Amino acid sequence: MSTAELATSYAALILADDGVEITADKLTTLIKAANIVDVEPIWASLFAKALEGKDVKDLLLNVGSGGGAPAAAAAGGVAASGGAAEEAKAEEKEEG
């Protein structure tokens, strides 16, 4: 991660922690106050648009939730396809 991305991320976290709306102007103000000079304004705009209308604290608290569902679905799919293969073999034996 570059210095620009880190600086903008930390600025967004500071604003979220204070309960302040995250905007490009507020991100830029915090970055300049921290004397970080090599951050292009596009980073503030990108982060502000990406986080618009989102609760950053909620995003952080739910980082790992919901990860088990795809694995369970994949395991169920394997079991179902295995069962179908066994049924097809049983039908072939009955016919032959």
From TrEMBL:
HAMAP family: Ribosomal_L12_arch. This is Large ribosomal subunit protein P1. Belongs to the eukaryotic ribosomal protein P1/P2 family. Keywords: Ribonucleoprotein, Ribosomal protein. GO terms for cellular component: cytosolic large ribosomal subunit. Coiled coil: none annotated. Pfam families: Ribosomal_60s. CDD domains: Ribosomal_P1. One of its GO terms (molecular function) is structural constituent of ribosome. InterPro entries: P1/P2_N_sf (IPR038716), Ribosomal_P1/P2 (IPR027534).
